[in-house]
Amino acid sequence: MSRSVLVTGGSRGIGLAIARELQQAGDAVAVTYRSGEPPEGFLGVQCDITDYAQVDAAFKTVEEEQGPVEVLVANAGITKDQLLALMSEEDFTSVLDTNLTGSFRVAKRAVRGMMRKRTGRIVLISSVVGLLGSGGQANYAASKAGLVGFARSLARELGSRNITVNVVAPGFVETDMTAALSEERQAEIKKNVPLGRYGSAEEIAKTVRFLSGPDAAYITGAVIPVDGGLGMGH
């Protein structure tokens, strides 16, 4: 059966790949975006997840167009990299507000309907950086590590309502951002990845599809690394 799905930050990159994968699975998929134009073929909802009023309005639109959200993929995120000694408080707090508190806002809004229906799937997109750490990314790493504790707490709260909450932790993925790196930097990154290559956005998306589907009904509170072995042991 087609389910109502919402993917935050679904207009490009990993988020768009996830939206396409779930649509191919037969789901009705809506995506949030902050600026520009939404991708064709999806219900696009403009939303800044740092504003709960916008989050609430986005959910109301999705509910009216395709029904209460049954699968939430919290993917939207930002980076503001800087060494700690030079990092401004705004650079730290704005990344936390988007990546971690933004996920809180959308999850809080989504669980209303899920609890009423006594079923639901929540998948949070973290990062290998949240497990390993990364110089110059203390804000980003803190936000992505926070998603793990958040997800596991929700998994305990919501398990009795048949709502699962899991985390996907991608490693280095082929995106516009990694393509812009120098060949030397790309070679250095790949040297540290046991599989010796970047992942693809589609590989992340297929993991999300599994976690949001019936075959993962007994998986909750899990952190699934999709990182070529970069973060193993964490």
UniProtKB/TrEMBL annotation:
Q: Which PANTHER family does the entry link to?
A: 3-OXOACYL-[ACYL-CARRIER-PROTEIN] REDUCTASE (PTHR42760:SF133), SHORT-CHAIN DEHYDROGENASES/REDUCTASES FAMILY MEMBER (PTHR42760)
Record: active site = 140 (proton acceptor)
Entry keyword Transport: no
Q: Which GO terms describe its molecular function?
A: 3-oxoacyl-[acyl-carrier-protein] reductase (NADPH) activity; NAD binding
Q: What class of enzyme is it?
A: oxidoreductase
**Name under which the protein is recorded:** 3-oxoacyl-[acyl-carrier-protein] reductase
**Which residue intervals define the domain Ketoreductase in the entry?**
3-176
> Self-association or partners: how does it assemble?
Homotetramer.
GO biological process assignments: fatty acid biosynthetic process
Query: What is the role of the protein in this entry?
Result: Catalyzes the NADPH-dependent reduction of beta-ketoacyl-ACP substrates to beta-hydroxyacyl-ACP products, the first reductive step in the elongation cycle of fatty acid biosynthesis.
Q: Where does NADP(+) bind?
A: 9-12, 75, 140-144
Look up the EC number in the record and give it. Answer: 1.1.1.100
